[in-house]
Each structure stands twice: as structure tokens, then as C-alpha cells.
């Protein structure tokens, strides 16, 4: 499975916010914003900070995409 933060970037566009604005509002590091841009895993605590700053739910900023062809990555 793959994590995608496309919803977050679309939400920022709708709110007329830049990544730097999000960083400051949520109190997260530039490195975390970079990880989100690469669709890497981040802590739940960081996602909660972002959701609190944007007044939204986690499902509004990310989605989990199943592996193609029903392949398993070995995690449960």
C-alpha cells in the first residue's frame, strides 16, 4: 500500500496557502513538509497537527492506495 498526500496539496490550493504557511500554522519542520511531498510516512502526531491547523480530518489530507494487482508489501 502507498500513502498519498495529494488531497493535502489540493486543500492548500483551495485555502490559498503555501507549504511555508502550512509549516508555520501547524508548527512542523520543513523536513516534514518535504516528506509529505515525497509521499513518505510521517507520524500520526504530525498529521494531527496539520489537521488541527487546517480544521479538517485526516481523511481530508491523505489516502491509502492499495498495491496494484493485489500484491502485498508484506505488512499487515
Features:
76 residues; mainly alpha; 434 Repressor (Amino-terminal Domain); two-stranded antiparallel sheet; 4 helices; 2 strands; 47% helix
Q: What does this protein look like?
A:
There is one protein chain. The chain is mainly alpha-helical and 76 residues long. The protein is built from 4 helices and 2 strands, in the order E-H-H-H-H-E. The chain has a single domain, classed as lambda repressor-like DNA-binding domains (434 Repressor (Amino-terminal Domain)). The longest helix is centred in the middle third of the chain and has 11 residues. The model has no long low-confidence stretch (mean pLDDT 92).
How are the SSEs ordered, and which strands pair?
Layout: E1 2-4, H1 6-14, H2 19-26, H3 30-37, H4 44-54, E2 63-65
Antiparallel strand pairs: 1-2
Amino acid at each position: 500500500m502507498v500513502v498519498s498526500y495529494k488531497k493535502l496539496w489540493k486543500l492548500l490550493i483551495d485555502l490559498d496557502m503555501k507549504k511555508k504557511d502550512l509549516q508555520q500554522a501547524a508548527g512542523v519542520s520543513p523536513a516534514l513538509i518535504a516528506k509529505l511531498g515525497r509521499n513518505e510516512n510521517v507520524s500520526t502526531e504530525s498529521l494531527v497537527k496539520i489537521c488541527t491547523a487546517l480544521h479538517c480530518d485526516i481523511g481530508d489530507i491523505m489516502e491509502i492506495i492499495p498495491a496494484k494487482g493485489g500484491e502485498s508489501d508484506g505488512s499487515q
